[in-house]
Design a protein that fits this description.
homodimer; 225 residues; alpha/beta; Rossmann fold; six-stranded mixed β-sheet; 11 helices; 55% helix; 9% strand; globular
Chain lengths: 225, 225
Amino acid sequence: MDFGTDFEPLTVQPQEIEALSFELIAQELGEHDFTELQYPVVRRIIHASADFELGRSLVFHPRAVEAGIAAILEGRPIIADVRMVEAGISKARIHRFGGEARVHITDEDVIAEAKERGTTRAIVAMRKACAEAPGGIYAIGNAPTALLELIRLVKEGAARPGLVIGMPVGFVSAAESKDELRKLDIPYITNIGRKGGSTVVVAAVNALSLLAVQQAAERRGGDCK
Amino acid sequence: MDFGTDFEPLTVQPQEIEALSFELIAQELGEHDFTELQYPVVRRIIHASADFELGRSLVFHPRAVEAGIAAILEGRPIIADVRMVEAGISKARIHRFGGEARVHITDEDVIAEAKERGTTRAIVAMRKACAEAPGGIYAIGNAPTALLELIRLVKEGAARPGLVIGMPVGFVSAAESKDELRKLDIPYITNIGRKGGSTVVVAAVNALSLLAVQQAAERRGGDCK
């Protein structure tokens, strides 16, 4: 097809825009208590939301970032609660280590089972994910019921997630589901309050896969010394 | 597969959760200047973001909501800037009127052309969309460059969008691109400032398709009288 030829040269390259954005974020965020390993995740979430209140509300389990990086390097699957989260995950960096992004909410067996049991697809999809990948990375940005079901499965011993990124957004049960998540001693990234959503969860996953790629490169560098 | 049988009955149905959320939003938002037709869009955006500041920052061209509903009823395509937006759009309500959701950012010809011209895929994807569907609904939540290119194409006369939902998020050029959009006399939904993103744009599209379905039902009801 004909795209036209009158393309103006780019005055600013995409990498420069990201660097400038990160500089502005660091200036406006000011002092904080996030660790050196947590900060790249916080920064990418603020970058994706332009919301410092949300950024400051983030809470990390002490092992969260290390565990997330390790899970990606081990090629564990990333389970998204909704298609938007699956769509936003940068696939190339995940596939490099043998991992993949999965979403079960539109699976035919999930839809049929939810209908038969009179329950939500989000709950059934979480059960399916935990049966297939109890040690996966769980990325939940939408349904509090999905997060609450995952917490129940963890307590039952049916799931041992590599990491839970639990940030459902909303006015009913979202904040409460995150309060429950923070009571568990498993690796999690979450936030306090109603905010969250697909964009925020995707930013966290993509920040972690960037860290995993960096760590893999550093290890290879180390091996050569 | 075996989903287990110990499903607890749902104590609250999803429709009730939405109704309760909408009640909380109305209470907390309080007085506002949005019209009766704009409010369902505002409410769904606050529902999807839990962000009243963002909700209050929304700006509608006077014809925006009517034009968006009409464009959906006419089956015009909805062009998303990124895959996340495409993934979040409720397809059934769009397909009912012959429309569809499109995204060109990962098209092979777009990737090749951007590389050859030394420009961004977002710009090339917008040119392709305008060449194929100059009267489409444009839903831009990510790249300010995509919105700026669309504005340029509108000024050139190469595009006459049915509606532009322009809410790219970010620290560099996002707010400025929305300032430019508000100078046009074409139907737009946008906001003031840095916030926005895929979830917000998707909420606007889905609110409009719900209104379109309602309006179609009312018209059918009217025909029967």
